[in-house]
Amino acid sequence: MKEDAPRGRQSLGERVRGLRVTLWTLIVPPTVWAVHFLFCYLWVAVSCAKLGAFPRFPVAFVVGTGAALAIILASGWIAWVQSRTPGDDPPHDEGTDIDRLRFLATATLLLAGLSFVAVLFTAAPALLLTDCR
Amino acid sequence: MSLHAQDDPALRAAQEERLRAVWAPPKGLFLRWTDTNNNQVGVWYTLTAFGFMLFAGVLALIMRVQLAQPGNELVTPSTFNQLFTLHGSMMMFLFAVPMFEAVSIILLPQLLGARDLPFPRLSAFGYWSFLIGGVFVSGSIFFDAAPDGGWFMYPPFTTRTDLSGLGADIWMLGLSFIEVSSVAAAVELITGVLKCRPPGMRLNLMPLYAWYILVVAVMILFAFPPLIAGDVLFELERLLGWPFFDAAKGGDPILWQHLFWIFGHPEVYIVFLPSIALFAMIVPTFARRHLLGYPWIVLAAVGTAFLSFGLWVHHMFTTGLPKISLAFFSAASEAVAIPTGIQIFAFIATLWAGRVTWSTPLLYVTGSIAIFVIGGLTGVMVAIAPFDWQAHDTYFIVAHLHYVLIGGTLIPLFGGLYYYWPLITGKKLSDRIGRTAFWLLFGGANLTFFPMHFSGLMGMPRRVFTYPEELGIGGLNLASTIGSWVFAAGVLLVCIDLALSPRRSKSLRNPWQAGTLEWLAHPDDEDWGIRSIPLIESRYPIWDQKNFVAKVDEGRFFLPDAQEGRRETIVTSVLDARPVQVLRLGGPSVVPMLTAIALGSVFILTTYHLYWAALVGAVVTLAMVLYWLWTGTAEIPEKDCKPIGHGIDLPLYISGASASGWWAMFITMMADATAFSGLVFGYYFFWTRHEDFPPGGPGMDGPGSFWPMLAMAVMLASWALTVAARELNRRAAVGAARAALATAALLSLGAIGAGLAGPWLSGLKPELHVYPAIVWTLAIWTTAHCGVGAIMQLYTLARSLAGRMTPRHDADLRNITVYQHFMALTAVVTYATIGLFPGAA
Questions:
Q1: Is residue A37 part of a domain?
Q2: Domains of chain B from N-terminus onward
Q3: CA angle (B258 as vertex; B253, B259 as ends), nearest 5
Q4: Hey, are the CB atoms on B303 and A30 less than 8 Å from each other?
Q5: Interface test with B, best of A51, A83, A111 (most B CBs within 10 A)
Q6: What is the pTM of this model?
Q7: Whether residue A58 has a cis bond before it, omega within 30° of 0
Q8: What ipTM was assigned to the predicted interfaces of this complex?
Q9: What integer best gives the mean pLDDT of chain B?
């Protein structure tokens, strides 16, 4: 029971649903967390060790955190749309294309949630503590 | 053959006869050990790891007796050091991780309806490596030569040869050898989960155990290599005096701590998640319903895997790193409680929503969750840096880690033992003995480790061989000792139960009425794994698919025969498990065992500084590997395709990204690149530690830019020619492809000379300072890889000349191209780092 879209013009939601979903897209949100984590830790650690001072442009942490959260939100939104792909019956645990898509999308959405929280956790020290002691 | 063809009992009997003959284990006193079937190797592996666990447990009992009362003199301080070091090292490296691999080698093919894992000989090689390395490390205590630096072997005590003996070398080299076998198992298990699922088992239908195995094996791939890199630096310091961890010569012991714990913390989850995976199989069976929140469990497994790599510094809170650095790791350590909690709640919710049948395995599961949660809560406490500063290196930590490991690894494994014993032997264990043992284990664990929280907070440091009476912790320690013996009684009872098993009669098939594929196994075990490889439509096919068991048994699914007398299984696509190939598996062979012995000799002889003999061992190992590859891999089949039933014809030979061999190479190189990044991390770490890096002066100047840049260019040319050879060969320009390969091999050899010329001609003296030492290390790592690359290129050329590689059968060439991609990346990073770094030129 696929919904009929007007020919030639797909809605945004349909185009999003058409995006390819793989094991690689599943790990986009936690990978963003890992990159953000390494960025915060390494920049502070190198700055403290080599310059003896907190990094000179703390606003970069805000920008970096904002960028990380934005990517996670985008990935989570795509996953949310995909996880609601209409088609098969609940509980969506059958061996069909749609259920496989819904499963990977749901897992990605959940990982996006966890990664969002974890990025906030990591950002907190960088934004609150601003010295090398 | 059609469905109806399988109606003929005579045909079925003939098929079974052929399958039985193909999968029959070799007979004979020696030859039986050359089998590679997962149901044999997995059982040896499990029993060996279980044996090491008992041994390490006895070491712990000796320690507990020593600590039973203040001022006790049962063992000397030196023996005590060896006891706790070996206890921790063995439990981690010889029990927890290998046990996960062992159990997975048995279970994974069953869970996936595969006849075996894709590389059975690799599993056998891993097992023999594990056995040799394990006996070498654990046997050292009988010669008073066991390692004594604690299981994390902190320098400088362990790297200074005047302060530590042979034990440190035994630890480093013996366990490095075992790490190699762990990486081999990771390659096997990842490829198994991704490529050997039965048709129809899409990612969303995969048993959760397989999800966990996938996640844990990937973690091994990224966690073990930094330790291998650390081991390399460590042994270079011990054997050659290159001062990586010697502060007097610019080194830094903290680097070891970083490399060790980048391995060490994910390691905790590497041993914990497989046990949770057992829960995920046991709980639905006894709750009599599908597990609730399947995507949530996947979230938890993947999320934990990622976050676990952001926790390592919480073992280093007291090393004086900037507080801000500690805060990042403290934050991640708190965050990891979220996915861990989610898994526990998913199990509780499933039990709550189901109709629970109380059974012995479920008793172990629920008991271990209770113990694990206590350990998890103290974990959240010690993740808070100020609390950790108080508790660090006290018995509070000992209590915490044992609660986590006993609740999160050991007792779940006992639960798994009671659950899966009928699968392996066809016989159930005794419920009565099992329950009694459970209560002894549960009570014993709590009696041993709960008092340790208090003795730790009252000031008892870990790893002391005794304590004064005035400290007032005698009573607590006595309680711990009594508890440890109660616990040991529980383990003994389990062993008795196992020993009684041969006298018991066979149980019914699928005695727990479980719904997942592994329970297709018949009590009268056949070695073929599964009669026919099913089409999967549900997460619990035995429960949900009609006549499922009968159809499998009657060979009505895929590949019910072995006409050509070969061991075979089906390879499918990663996401949707569409069949793509019939993979011919390696049969019984003595080669894996001999290769493991040869490689083991390299590590063991190096320990005793017998370098020439070790070199001979290395050459023999290389020869064995080449023989193994030449005779056992990328074989051109006698026909292109074969039918697997239901009108499907599958190719017998595939190459490139859909082939299991390509994946194995890719995965191995991910591990290799991770080890390399550990060494590069070392370079930049030392840079942050020094005002002037390179320091300059005689023997400490940079290697210049010329030679590193030349080496990079030559290496990139070799890489480009390999890619060209692949394309030329594909287009049937065989002569040109061979010429390209030969030139590429020559260039690889040239890149060795150019790579070493930089540090050699600029007279870098690695014993003087850490800078020349790390430059030499990077150059040697990269040029050694060039050498391996040259061997691969020449091997592929020889395969082409021998007619074992053709334009259509080009797996060898495609696989070495993957190696060359990583090789090019390694060369670029190394030579840019040592040749272009400010001051190096």
A1: yes
A2: 40-503 (1.20.210.10), 664-836 (1.20.120.80)
A3: 100
A4: yes
A5: A111
A6: 0.94
A7: no
A8: 0.90
A9: 93
